[in-house]
Amino acid sequence: MAFKQSLAVLALSLAAALLGTSATAQTYPSKPVKIIVPFAAGGPADNYARFIAQRLQDALGQPFVVDDRPGAGSVIGTDVVAKSAPDGYTLLLMSNTHTVNESLIPNKPFQLMRDFVAIAPINYSDLVLVANPALPASNLRELMAQARAKPGKINYASSGPGTPYHMAGELFKSMAGISLVHIPYRGSSGARTDVMGGQVELMFDAVTTMAEQVKAGKVKALATTGKVRSDVLPDVPTMSEAGLPGYEATIWLGLMAPRGTPKAVVDKLNDAVSKIAGQADVRQLWNKQGAVPMVMTPEVFDKYARDDISKWAQVIKTANIKVD
User: Fold this and answer.
1) Bridge partners of residue 36, in order along the sequence
2) Lower CB density within 10 Å: C or N end of the chain?
3) Ranges of residues in the chain whose predicted pLDDT is under 50
């Protein structure tokens, strides 16, 4: 009798849990949702966070509010999300900065795959190596020759340690066997402004944000970082074509939530983001900007992030890359 009662209690508990999960999915969101962007305003993360926020608001009927919290190579804003309630109302707009930081900044107050759950990727885009027009080098081979002739005399800017812009520069240094001085900024906007102003010679930046500056002649593009040429800058060679075979680096974006967020909420957000990324007008718009939509289940995105952590851990170890 006691055994039968235990089974009945267990069945009721499971039924209640399933009903609770269903109710959570049906009622979420019932109030505004905050998307924390741990990067400065004006860069790809901020821009695409605002785009996704508006589309999620349209799809799910509640405001999705973007809150920029830059600093410490994304650590400050990310830690805010890690310490937030796991209820789906505080989300993280993350990039491969986060997967790099797992090895580059091991003593963070959080661990990405321990303290967060993957929701969905958003998109990826190539980077472009740009130079101030006053830099004598007119192509990648000339730049590498100048850097070898004058080691440590050429600077490159980034939006902070561990960001894709920083790691693209460190990968370049390692593969080319050259010495460049890294100048970290709190965000990509300041770095971009100083490259155009001549305070810094070089920068790897997202094609999505730098293409217009290239076309306007405010910077000169030496190479893009994808496997093939960018549709946005088709006249600019890839790093491999320009003289550094095998070089590849991109920036990708995604959404995560604090660990413990109900799976029903994660799945509902994944479904909404995936539908947004699959819309024809979104794909057309992003293609013009140089961004490629990414669609994965939460489980596949989790593996993708873990694989990226392993990839950059090996690069950081092999190249002996340290935070400046």
Assistant:
1) 67, 92
2) N
3) none
